[in-house]
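Narrative of activities, Objective 1.

The group set out to show that a structural description can be obtained from nothing but a protein's sequence at a throughput compatible with the screening campaign. Below is one input-output pair from the validation batch, recorded exactly as produced.
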Amino acid sequence: MARRGHDRSEAVDGVLLLNKPAGLTSNQALQRVKRLLNARKAGHTGSLDPAATGMLPLCFGEATKVCAFLLDADKTYRVTAKLGSATDTGDATGSVIGTADVPQLTAEAWDAVLQGFRGESMQVPPMYSALKKDGKRLYELARKGETVERAPRPIRIDEIELLEAAGSRLVFRVRCSKGTYVRSLVEDIAQAAGTVAHTARLHRETVAGFEADEMIDLKALEETAAEGPAPLRDSLLPPDRALAGLPELVFGGADAERFCSGQAIAAGAAAERGLARVYGEGQVFLGVGEVLPDGRIAPRRVFGRPGGNP
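Output recorded for this entry:
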């Protein structure tokens, strides 16, 4: 028996930057947009908690190959913290488990506290997280009232900027490495200031080189999709936009063909070791390669072929 529904989906390629609304899981948001696009293959990168809002890159078709690279990308968040009360989840969805007086600090003093978190450090992940312990998600254990020891993990805070400090409300912007738990960061900041806190609001502004003004609201997508999936597909960005932080290498002729066939080729004396975007003649995006110590570049993800055919 033929499967109905699935067979009517189409091959759709590209990246869409969704401004995820609160109340949806990242996968729920993905599935809604996937249906609007009538796309066959889709994935998201860098999950956001249901209560969080902001940039959620959705990858379709060939663009799903960039998901792994976006997972490693730096991210920027606008954070609103509620000082004076701690919750079991670290955010506003949890139950209050502790309170403390809020110190009357000046903006300069709060900024000094924040700047103390810049750089590399070790962070203990929260119990309410998707990390696993003995095969079980930490949040599953936390919901049973269990607390287990978590090994600290390395994180990096590149920028942290105070936006507002008024009463029990603290607002800041932070640019951080992958694996940074903002809820834990808020709790650590509060502890450094002599109080407790939880994350009241969390909005992700940027991922990798994608900017906030490139995001599209779900409501706007739904309105555009009322005319059919075709106009909505005009909102998709090419896969290589997700890799703008990587250096670019261009090859032509036989070298481009060999790269797309999975063979390592000479990268050139100027190529630096590490990952790079690879293009063919006419700026056709061929894929991602890794420059090896011997000066060759080996394909890691192939997206297209010379001439523009996938």
